[in-house]
Amino acid sequence: MMKDGAIVVNISRRDVVDESALSEALRDGKL
Fold it and tell me: What's the domain range around 6?
């Protein structure tokens, strides 16, 4: 789990991070 106030910075190419999965994990409290 990420600490409160943590920031995810994607410095990779666009397709490396699945943004929909990331937003779902954030919404569900998994990150």
Answer: 1-31
Say what the pTM is: 0.51
DSSP helix/strand/coil, 7: coil
28/12 Cα distance (integer angstroms):
24
- Tokens read off for 10: 């994607």
**What Å distances lie between residue 2 and 12, 24, 27, CA to CA?**
19, 15, 13
**Into how many domains does the chain fold?**
1
pLDDT digit string, tens, across residues 22-31: 889 889 988 7
